[in-house]
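tool=predict chain=A
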Amino acid sequence: MALPFLDRTGRRKRDQLLAFDLGARTTKAVSLSRHNGGFALHRYAVMDAPIYEKTLSTDLLAEHLRALVQQLDARTRMAVFAVGVGDALVRHAELPRIPLEDMRQILKINSKNYLQQDLPNHVFDCYVMAAAHAAAKPAEPAKTAPAAGPAKQKVLVAGAKRQLVDDFVAAARHAGLVADHIVPGLIGPINAFEAALPEAFAREVVALVDLGFRHSTICILAEGELVLSRTVAIGGDRLTSGLAEAMNITYAEAEGIKVGMPAEVQSTLETLLVPLGRELRASIDFFEHQQERPVSAVYLTGGASRSEFIVQVLQNELMVECRPWNPTSFLRSELPPVQAAELEQIAPQLAVAIGAALAAF
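tool=predict ok
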């Protein structure tokens, strides 16, 4: 699934890409290449995000990118950037059956008509939703004559402020990179999940939950189609801060024990996790009520998904089996020995960056 915000006219396939997931606390980056019909992972990097007050300047971002490129030992300058959930919208809409370039233009001119919101100075991209499952059902005969006007289709629309996109392009250029794609981070785990677990993606109804620093996202997929997505303003930061306050310890100490989970902090952390579980459960309830189909499993990514205790608490709240999954499982590893040894611990944090790269290949 590609929603790159940038004009793709004349763009050719890439053999190697760098992908950057610019998170609120850490940036996750990967270097991927094509390999025998699949993909290979050459390097990854996890680095503290730049500290800034309001807006991240292009100069500061460029400096940050140069440091990441050095860690990735990059052999290419083609780069993909994942835009955070707070900076990119992803919504379903019905649009006329017209070329993608025309869809982008009508959204730019009249976003309120299709997205119920005025979005001036935004750039948009569209992804026409697959309807294979609908084709399996016989069409019902029309009871009345169809209304005049062009036929419409279900489309996934992504949008971001033009200034943000321009800043990413400028920072990439200053860092010696080419911004090949800029995509909403929300779709990263979806793309990675399709590659890592194709059977579950294509045949099941599942929820993908990415536990981020400030936000967590839930995307419900029904046989490969994104049906519902939601962002919850509860992430690892709130869990760590709440644990630090309750235990009267430093933030760094709380972060260190959150995943390790000594027995004495489990009850405190469980209390902090309940609101997140309820918000996620509300999204699942809404889907199941609207679609009359149950969610069979919840797949978790993000740093907090490494904790067996956190996974178990969320499973108790969601009343659906929760499973961590590895977004690097389908990649051929060409990592240096040190990174290869640490990949299992780092992998849950790489879903967004890997999925963003797949959107551009």
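The chain has two domains: 16-141+152-190+352-360, 201-324. The longest strand covers residues 38-48.
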